[in-house]
């Protein structure tokens, strides 16, 4: 049996190329671990039945000398990323039997690179939540303490990597859904610049905020995946190639790191803050410069997010009508078909956000909520543009707390929303952000991981990888 | 203040049947969330001096169009798409009559 606990994409690739093990053996090792661990963790919605066949194909590609760095690498895919002819259910009863009719662009790119898809992973229904407790199929639990949540909404993808049930994974991030669970489960999670990777074939939630994001055990792993999935796509008109492809970036070893202290005065767990400060000290010792940065409108970011996101949700969810695809409940007439289908098959949190979105978009409230939120979003973008004139990156803890217990916040949606406080700004401004593990904190005799978030100017993922690797080297 | 009637109206607008016993908890939750997001009303408006300025640099936001050419073959994707429908009649989506 292969010891996968120390494997990275690069080392697995080396072993595959040298013939130390085959892609079939590697895939089988992950399948065995899933069989052992996943009944407790519930990371997977579905483990595909053709994993070994996929791995055999990868072995052939390797044999013919056509391998890329991802050939034979076992991937977990979030349940809202389409893979042709496989069920993509977004962990919702609405799409329980929905078979994707095409590949998402990220799927296609990973397929072309020879990746092996192990399965689809559990998530908050339609990616709405921060704990995977909103899945119609039960929560994904934290591999570090199964009494606790994995975080969300990409909790299944992250837990799959954290429990060694896949070497890497894809998630989606609308307000922190790749970064926050990564922080809770000790993985690296990247939200690319808005537009850096195509959204084609992701089940849409908030279209001005969504991005697919790689999850891995190391910063280098997420960088490798990002390099494969990024780029302009003819099927997503908001996607674009990095303007820095042909240069224009000045590389420097030592960065100026901005800390928005004014935004971190309350609501943060004391141990999380202590760990954050300790990490900053280590970075300073490496020669990076730490400065205070003021972002005047950042305090409004969560409020802006919880207006714009539900507004976009209410529009995107309108497509689920029991007519075109997905579940259908039969009523007396067409209107009742709609009412029953949507009332029965959309979960509580989804319905809550649709109601909220409908409210902020309705006549009489539009200007006060949606209009005002758009203006404030522009101000926030301006704050970031101004700040990045003097600093290279902005850092915060990824989440104000370590992983919380299953059920702890279930009855109070607002307290759940507050867990997104540090992550939503990157989605609102479109800047890239990464969560990198930065140590652990002990809770009830269990070591719980913490994450350190770095944000950089648009299309400067290179800075995230650079500083992320520095954090890994001193952790 | 959000009332039960507001919730009923919003449920109707968004085409969802929401059980009466759920309406009150939903009302309280929506009210509490709106109480939180209300703080955006305190956020600055675009200041007077900025008012004349365009909000985004010219060219930063634009529609992306393509030429209306090279259509796919008729019915190339029909079967793939219609086969996901809950009910069909031939190559049509089947719904209840509305008149």
Overview of the molecule:
- By secondary structure, chain A is α/β, with parallel strands linked by helices.
- Helix content of chain A is 38%, strand content 15%.
- In chain A, strand 4 and strand 5 (145-149) form a beta hairpin.
- In chain A, helix 2 runs antiparallel to helix 3.
- Chain B has helices spanning 4-13, 20-37, 78-82; strands at 88-89, 92-93.
- The longest helix of chain B has 18 residues, at 20-37.
- Chain B is flat, with a radius of gyration of 24 Å.
- The chains are: A alpha/beta (475), B mainly alpha (99).
- At the A-B interface, helix 9, helix 10, helix 11, helix 12 and helix 13 of A face helix 1 and helix 2 of B.
Topology, element by element:
The complex is a heterodimer of chains A (475) and B (99).
Chain A: H1 9-18, H2 23-41, E1 44-47, H3 51-63, E2 74-78, H4 105-112, E3 116-121, E4 141-142, E5 145-149, H5 155-162, E6 168-173, H6 179-185, E7 188-191, E8 211-216, H7 219-229, E9 256-259, H8 270-285, E10 289-292, H9 301-316, H10 334-345, H11 348-361, H12 367-387, E11 393-397, H13 413-417, H14 424-429, E12 433-443, E13 446-455, H15 461-474
Parallel strand pairs in A: 2-3, 2-6, 9-10, 9-11
Antiparallel strand pairs in A: 1-3, 4-5, 6-8, 7-8, 7-12, 11-13, 12-13
Helix pairs in contact in A: 2-3, 9-11, 9-12
Chain B: H1 4-13, H2 20-37, H3 78-82, E1 88-89, E2 92-93
Antiparallel strand pairs in B: 1-2
Helix pairs in contact in B: 1-2
Largest sheet of chain A: 11 strands, mixed
Task: Round the mean pLDDT of chain B to the nearest integer and report it.
Answer: 86
CATH class of the domain at 4-41 in chain B, please?
A: Mainly Alpha
Order of helices and strands of chain A: HHEHEHEEEHEHEEHEHEHHHHEHHEEH
Radius of gyration of chain A: 21 Å
- Please count the beta strands of chain A (DSSP E, at least 2 residues each): 13
Task: Fill in the keyword field for this structure.
heterodimer; A: 475 residues; alpha/beta; eleven-stranded mixed beta sheet; two-stranded antiparallel sheet; B: 99 residues; mainly alpha; Histone, subunit A; 3 helices; 33% helix
């Amino acid at each position: 049996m292969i010891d996968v606990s120390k494997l990275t994409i690069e080392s697995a690739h080396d072993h595959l190329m040298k013939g130390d093990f085959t892609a079939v053996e590697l895939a089988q090792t992950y399948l065995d671990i899933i069989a052992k661990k996943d009944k407790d963790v519930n990371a997977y919605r579905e483990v595909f039945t053709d994993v070994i066949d996929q791995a055999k194909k990868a072995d052939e590609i390797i044999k013919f000398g056509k391998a890329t760095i991802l050939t034979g690498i076992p991937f977990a895919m979030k349940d809202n990323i389409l893979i042709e002819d496989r069920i993509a259910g977004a962990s919702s009863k609405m799409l329980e039997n929905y078979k994707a009719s095409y590949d998402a662009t990220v799927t296609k790119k990973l397929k072309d690179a020879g990746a092996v898809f192990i399965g689809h992973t559990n998530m908050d229904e339609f990616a709405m939540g921060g704990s995977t407790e909103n899945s119609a199929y039960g929560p994904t639990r934290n591999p570090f303490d199964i009494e606790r949540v994995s975080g969300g909404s990409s909790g299944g993808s992250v837990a799959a990597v954290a429990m060694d049930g896949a070497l890497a994974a894809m998630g989606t991030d609308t307000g922190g859904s790749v970064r926050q669970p990564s922080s809770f489960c000790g993985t690296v999670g990247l939200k690319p610049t808005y537009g850096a990777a195509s959204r084609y074939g992701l089940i849409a939630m908030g279209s001005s905020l969504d991005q697919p994001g790689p999850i891995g055990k190391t910063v280098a792993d997420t960088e490798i995946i990002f390099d494969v999935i990024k780029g302009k796509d003819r099927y997503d008109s908001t996607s674009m190639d990095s303007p820095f492809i042909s240069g224009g970036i000045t590389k420097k070893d030592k960065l100026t790191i901005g800390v928005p202290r004014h935004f971190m005065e309350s609501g943060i767990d004391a141990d999380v803050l202590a760990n954050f400060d300790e990490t900053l000290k280590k970075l300073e010792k490496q020669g990076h410069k730490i400065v205070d940065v003021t972002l005047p409108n950042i305090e409004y970011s969560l409020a802006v997010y919880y207006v714009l996101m539900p507004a976009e949700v209410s529009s995107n969810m309108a497509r689920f009508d029991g007519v075109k695809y997905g579940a259908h409940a039969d009523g007396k007439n067409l209107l009742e078909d709609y009412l029953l289908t949507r009332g029965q098959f959309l979960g509580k949190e989804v319905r809550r956000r649709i109601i909220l979105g409908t409210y902020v978009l309705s006549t009489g409230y539009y200007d006060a909520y949606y209009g005002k939120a758009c203006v404030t979003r522009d101000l926030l973008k301006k704050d970031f543009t101004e700040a990045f004139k003097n600093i290279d990156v902005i850092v915060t803890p990824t989440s104000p707390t370590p992983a919380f217990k299953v059920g702890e916040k279930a009855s109070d949606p607002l307290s759940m929303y507050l867990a997104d406080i540090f992550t939503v700004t990157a989605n609102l401004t479109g800047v890239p952000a990464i969560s990198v593990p930065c140590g652990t904190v002990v809770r009830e005799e269990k070591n719980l991981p913490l994450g350190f978030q770095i944000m950089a100017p648009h299309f400067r993922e290179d800075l995230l990888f650079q500083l992320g690797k520095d954090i890994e080297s001193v952790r | 203040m959000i009332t039960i009637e507001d919730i009923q109206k919003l449920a109707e607008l968004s085409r969802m049947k929401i059980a009466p016993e759920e309406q009150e908890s939903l009302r309280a939750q929506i009210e509490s969330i709106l109480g939180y997001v209300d703080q955006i009303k305190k956020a600055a408006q675009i200041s007077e001096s900025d008012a004349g300025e365009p909000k985004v640099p010219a060219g930063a936001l634009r529609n992306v169009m393509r030429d209306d050419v090279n259509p796919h073959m008729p019915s190339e994707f029909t079967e793939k798409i219609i086969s996901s429908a809950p009910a069909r009649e031939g190559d049509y989506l089947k719904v209840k009559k509305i008149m």
